[in-house]
Design brief:
This is Domain of unknown function DB domain-containing protein. This protein is an all-alpha fold. It has 8 helices and no strands. The protein is globular, with a radius of gyration of 16 Å.
Length: 132
């Protein structure tokens, strides 16, 4: 019985470690049971959101409780990605989106100029989850 439990733990650990960034993101979003299911299903995927459709995401999901913030927490792992973002050319106030350990800024309209850096921020989040 002990061997079976040990094997199960090792298999679970290995599956978690071998998961790619999207699988880890999806796993986190699957736990957002109080958030909007349409938004989490449609947009909780690094390949499903980019600078070309982030406004669509925000327009659909901002008014649906804390869904956007919780999804951002899943994508960012609430880790400070400032160094990665700087290396990708993100500057100024847009770095606030990279400094995700405090959550996402909620006054999105004040940051519209940051849309041109959205893919770089997203890629930093993805790269982090690939190895963590």
């Amino acid at each position: 019985m002990k061997l079976y439990i040990l094997a199960l733990l090792v298999a679970t650990f290995a599956a978690t470690c071998l998961a790619d960034a999207n699988e880890k993101l999806r796993s986190c979003c699957d736990k957002l049971s109080k958030d909007d299911p349409e938004c989490t299903k449609r947009f909780c995927d690094f390949d499903a959101i980019s600078q070309t459709n982030v406004l669509n995401f925000l327009s659909k999901c901002t008014e649906r409780g804390q869904t956007v913030g919780h999804m951002w927490d899943c994508a960012s792992s609430r880790v400070d990605h400032t160094k990665c973002c700087e290396e990708k050319g993100v500057t100024g106030r847009c770095l606030e989106y990279c400094s995700a350990h405090d959550g996402v800024p909620t006054n999105y309209l004040d940051y519209l100029f940051c849309l041109e850096n959205f893919n770089e921020v997203r890629d930093c989040f993805r790269e982090y989850l690939e190895v963590h």
